Amino acid sequence: MNVRRAVDIFSVQVTSVLRFLQQHGHRLGANGFQNCLPTLEFMEVVQKWFALHNIKSTSLHWTSRDALRMPFYRADDERLLWLETECLEYFSQWKESTSHKKEFLSEETYEALRVTTLSTVLCTRHLLQLGFYFVLTGKFSSDDVEFLFSAIRQLNGSNDLGDAYAALSALQKILTTGIIHSSESGNVGGLVAPLGEVPALPVEPVKQAAADTDIRKLLLPHLATLERYPCPPQQSLRSSTLALIAGFLVRAIQGNIECEGCLVKLQAPSSSSPTTALIAGVDRGGLSYPTLPFVGFVHHLEQAASRVASVLVKGPQPLKKFSAVVLPSLLKSPLFDCAQDKSVPHKTKLVSVILQKFMRPFLSNTANGLTVCNAKKKRRLSKRNLPR
Could you tell me the superkingdom of the organism this chain comes from (predicted)? Predict the structure, then answer.
């Protein structure tokens, strides 16, 4: 199992989107989320539980603005009280309210959760009472024990039903040879050798990259739109998502261009309106909020980039080609006029930062999407579809 993927399911970003859909989904055409509050509560409990068990740094709580990631300094820390009281009571009440075992966690999972929680609380308090200045729960690890168990299992032919005699035999081999080796597929997906011969897919001819003139023709309908002052977008799920990206761009401008005049038309005060509700859901005090016209511009820029994305990723220097076509139009837009410096080089620097910070992850995601699609096409046939 890949732990990172499991953690991402319960991340603040996911719960923030669900809460946004629960509050505003019915007005934006996304129905069916009005009754998801119990699921949200469960996800937030699991996220907080994992965050308290994964504290690995003494300074991350400052940089991330997340108080949950602060090391434990006192035995009476309220986070420890939450773990042994509210957290365990939440699962206990859930278990008592169910009428069937399938409506709750499995007995093994619940017992492991309870033992791990109590062990973390008691061990942390014990260390602090002994005189430790702080405790990092992320340093509590059972990897060495799991490493030994994996080696014992491998020495017994990957037998999941081993007995005491098999374990003793494996331990004797380890002590005799002095070699311990665990499975290379531990905690990640394993690679299974194909059965039989899989018919090779025909090799597609390599297409030549489109010329700059072809890219310009594809972008021609969008260039006139990018030259005008953008209108605020209509309230929708897409505009709320693009507002999150626009907020990232505002933050990037603040870090690369030290000019308050450039931000007059791009940055807005903190708000929890439907358009910026996704930003407010994950904001701990360090995020930036875009103006509605800037969100409208990001919407038009995303449409233009999507129009030529499949062509750009197939050739060299896609960012340079896209910027060469779009940059002259963006320089004509009054949205990027600076109140303090109206020179062309200053405006060019601002627009270039926006293009780079937007297009690099956009092109990367597009290329990754094509890679995943091609990988699915090359996936081997199942046993029932193999030729006989």
Answer: Eukaryota
